Q: What sequence folds into this?
């Protein structure tokens, strides 16, 4: 079976996959983001009500917790440290979370303006997806790709775009991300991102 996504100009983008079944055996509350943590061999999920859980690849629960009352919309991890990074929609924050006990270690702010132009409007749909891209030459171990969810391709203050940002992971004092570039694919409602070093896998 091949799902089809039609973008704004009517071109079909095909994403082939094989349906294997429903992995959600725990009835997780409003799941909105998932990542496979390769170093642990498990899956982490976040939910719209501020929940986080770790499950085995067969769907059975390892642990679950409520971080706080927040709309968590995406999750990724840094393979060098194993720490989790969660996107909080609305507040435009990235939460750094310890995977063993779900403690929130730090919060990083995503600026709403890029080169003095507002691109993530307060009250808009906000951050919807996140993925970490390891880079050996980066002083912080890599960069993040984050997606701003927008349904209006003409809203210049709340653009439907993917932003590459550098979050100061190796700093003890900095908490604000730095914008590097933006990718505007001209499609609305970007709601998921993943990174793979394999050139055949696209964002």
A:
């Amino acid at each position: 079976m091949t799902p089809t996504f039609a973008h704004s100009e009517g071109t079909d983008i095909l994403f082939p996959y094989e349906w294997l079944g429903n992995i959600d055996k725990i009835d997780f509350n409003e799941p909105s983001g998932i990542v496979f943590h390769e170093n642990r061999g498990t899956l982490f999920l976040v939910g719209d009500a501020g929940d986080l859980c770790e499950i085995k690849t067969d769907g059975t629960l390892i642990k679950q917790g409520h971080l706080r009352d927040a709309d968590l919309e995406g999750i990724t991890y840094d393979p060098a440290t194993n720490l989790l990074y969660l996107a909080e929609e609305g507040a435009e924050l990235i939460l750094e979370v310890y995977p063993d006990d779900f403690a929130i270690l730090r919060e990083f702010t995503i600026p709403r303006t890029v080169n003095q132009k507002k691109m993530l409007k307060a009250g808009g749909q906000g951050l919807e997806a996140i993925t970490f891209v390891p880079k050996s030459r980066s002083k912080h171990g890599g960069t993040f790709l984050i997606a701003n969810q927008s349904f209006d391709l003409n809203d210049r203050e709340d653009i439907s775009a993917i932003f590459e940002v550098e979050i100061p992971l190796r700093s003890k004092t900095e908490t604000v991300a730095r914008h590097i570039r933006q990718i505007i694919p001209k499609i609305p409602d970007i709601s998921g991102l993943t990174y793979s070093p394999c050139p055949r896998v696209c964002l």
